[in-house]
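Support request, please re-run this one:
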Amino acid sequence: MPEAHVQVAKSFLELSMNFTSMLLLWVLKLREMERSERTSKEDNGPIDSSRKHKLMAVANIMAFLESLLNWVSLTDFWSNYVWLGAFVLIVALIRFLNVLSYPEKPWVTYMQKTTLSKNQISIGDMLNRCPILNEIYSPPLLWGRSGHLQTASYGLFGHASLIRTYDCRHVVKLSDGASVVFDVFEPVKPHSLRKDLTLALCPGIANTSESNYIRTCVHYAQENGYRCAVLNHLGALKHVPLTSNRIFSYGGTEEMEEMMARLHELYPSTRFFCVGFSMGANITTRMIAKLSSDCVQHRIIAGLSVAQGYCATSSLSLYHNWENGRRAYNYLITENMKRLLRRNYDMAVAPHVRTGLIDEQHLWAATSIMALDDSYTRRILGYESVEEFYRDISSLSVIPKIKIPMIFVNALDDPLIPPCLWHPVRELAATNGHFGFVLTKHGGHLGFLEGSSIAPNSVTWLDRFIVELANSVAVAYYENE
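Re-run finished. Output below.
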């Protein structure tokens, strides 16, 4: 046998031994779970339906893994290169699906000992009032532990066929002619506290109130007594034309501030809980940091950031490498932004091409968000370089200025936001009494789908957490009032 073939065979043999060991450990772990369930049954009497289904699922998975283990251990397994290829594909699929990762409770970080000022809400008490943080977050079986599939599916699952629309659409003109459009959804049931409470939602990049993950969140919040106001990013609504020569920007807070100002006028007795998603979380964080303390203290009682990257400057190099597929995501986000610009070409692109500010050829040739920002965004906003633009729009440097309760949520398997981006915020939460940090093991980027079977529940883990946290904040706020 040629030396190269010998090396390949050795590599595959080593891979098979490692894989077989993993299977064996997983079988032993499942057997232990099965014994634990049966012991619990003996101690606590008849088993309930959910535990019965869990026990059956454990038994079925264990049987499958044992049969796979037997198949791998066949003596003639390595005699055929077809089987080698099949085995490699199986290993790659298992690695991609991350099926050997087991669900865990979220990891919660906050300052354990802090001296509270008058009317300050305790982050610890607030988070301890959320039962969901003491529960294991269980993503859907088979595919739900893959951060990539969670990320890809967050806009596909949920209440895709909801017919409930906004109760009122508001349009506010800015000084540069831009029309801020936001939608208000009234609660369908009274809140348990009998208070007027509003969730102010800022969606992710190029998203609106029509985005499916926003609709599921709004639907669940309405059912729990919350009014929801959703900012529609400039240029993102397909049937609403731009009225100025720009679209939204990643860190621009003007539209969010204008929405909040109008909501203050429309609902003078309400209290606001601001929630931002991904890019919208950056905007929400920056807006809260900018607002005056009196305004924040009396009307905006807390904020929540979900799947934020915090520092655009640090992400410059990260999004150009292929680790965890980030370069591919970078390309897809760029293409989505280019589609949005093409749809709004007459207002957002053509005027700047005519003045020579934008090189159209460079714009459409961009294959990364950094290239697009260099050829378009930073020029429209008057920055000399992308680096200067990113430094100015990042929220990390302004987070310490926030003086109200603010919770930050990230997922460990988020393919877009690696740990190096959220670590500084987690460390800040451990030393600052205004902040809390929640890290989930699974969830991807804005996914957080959960369920006890392959099909996910229509209500996500994130939807439930937002409502539980908002309830906890409201209770703490009115106790201190």
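The first strand starts at residue 107 and ends at 110. The two ends are 81 Å apart (CA to CA).
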